[in-house]
Amino acid sequence: MIDQMPEQPLTPVLDEIEKAWVRPRRGSISRNAQGHEIWYEKFAWSYVPCHWKGGALLVLIVAGANASLWLAIWLMGATGDSGPPLTAFLTLVPWFALMFWMAQRHSGPRR
Questions:
Q1: Which residues make Cβ contacts (< 8 Å) with residue 18, sequence separation at least 6?
Q2: Is residue 91, in this structure, part of any structural domain at all?
Q3: Of the candidates 49, 24, 29, the residue with the CA atom closest to the CA atom of residue 39
Q4: pLDDT for 15-68, tens place per residue?
Q5: Which pairing describes strands 40-43 and 46-49: parallel, antiparallel, or unpaired?
Q6: Which structural domain, as residue segments, surrounds residue 54?
Q7: Beta-carbon count within 10 A of 110 CB
């Protein structure tokens, strides 16, 4: 019985909501040659966010790097390590590598 029912929206309002919010819009987001969404633009020797996802990723990376740095400094103080504070800054290297990799992956073609 259900197989014989035609696909019709319950109401025109629900159909409009589905079109606007549920179904993804094709072609509204530009993609690079690998098929990834473009979130960053290459500017000089750096990458600049040009999409809200790029900005959100940048904020997330900065927050994670800040948290790992403070945790490393706190652990050094809690364990009584009197080593150079430079060792705490080594926790930033994976965060910078992740940010650079994501920016390269989600950047557009070079101009």
A1: 9
A2: yes
A3: 49
A4: 665 555 544 455 567 888 888 888 888 888 888 888 889 999 999 999 999 999
A5: antiparallel
A6: 30-105
A7: 5
